[in-house]
Design goal:
It is a single chain. The protein is α+β, with helices and mostly antiparallel strands. It contains 3 helices and 12 strands. The strands form 2 sheets. The protein has an 8-stranded mixed sheet with strand order 2-3-4-1-5-8-7-6. The chain has a 4-stranded mixed sheet with strand order 10-9-11-12, with helices on one face. The longest helix is centred in the N-terminal third of the chain and has 12 residues. The two termini are 21 Å apart. 39% of the residues are buried.
């Protein structure tokens, strides 16, 4: 993925994936397929966390994660990731970047005044039985808007975008937030950027599809 060179970050630097969180995974997957003509592929279950996902490639090493409650898992002891149980409707909730050096980027961001939180391990098993392991940041220090990305490092695991996903090429990512400057600082500290305007908190993206450009969010 590349960053637009004319000052507006049409596609953010180091973009790894966008997160479309939903209280009803099957319904959101069907809706994505209806609108785009492309059916997301099953990703796998986040064991112990009570969620599972479906994936769509966005071109290059980037993808869309549609994540929601997993009806085949018991309810977890704590909150499900992205608080999917509490969402009244599907929402483009946040995004992730994959910098070349996760730990170095965390340290540099802290030195610049933004703490993305510590990296912790997660995993999921794909439908064909492969176990994917990664580290990602998050937790209390994360910016409450969701517009500052969390960081992810796939280590030795195969990147989801390299697994033959159906693809809807990403055209642009943008967001609105009441105080854009409060978000621009953390974004710069992480070495990325986002097309921001003033308004209610919202993250949106546009993809090219067999049915033409489609915007979510």
């Amino acid at each position: 993925m590349t960053v637009a060179s004319h000052g507006v970050n049409a596609i953010p630097a180091h973009l790894d994936h966008l997160v479309l969180a939903t209280p009803d995974l099957a319904a959101s997957v069907a809706e994505f397929a209806r609108r785009t003509g492309v059916t997301p592929a099953p990703g796998g279950a986040h064991l112990g966390h009570g969620t599972r996902n479906h994936l769509v490639g966005l071109g290059g090493r980037a993808y869309l994660e549609i994540v929601g409650p997993d009806p085949e898992q018991p309810a977890p002891a704590g909150e499900r990731p992205f608080e999917v149980d509490r969402l009244p409707e599907p929402r483009v909730l946040t995004w992730a970047i994959s910098p070349p050096d996760l730990d170095g980027t965390i340290a540099a961001a802290r030195a610049r005044g933004y703490d993305p939180g510590p990296a912790h391990p997660m995993s999921r098993r794909t439908p064909d039985g492969e176990l994917l392991r990664w580290r990602l940041t998050g937790g209390e220090p994360a910016h409450p808007s969701g517009l500052v990305p969390f960081l992810i490092d796939w280590g030795d695991s195969r990147h989801p975008a390299d697994s033959g996903l159906p693809v809807t090429p990403l055209i642009a990512v943008s967001a609105t937030v009441p105080g854009p400057q409060e978000v621009r600082g953390p974004l710069a500290a992480l070495g990325t950027g986002l097309d921001l305007a003033e308004g209610p908190v919202a993250l949106r993206f546009t993809v090219d599809t067999p049915r033409g450009p489609v915007t979510f969010g």
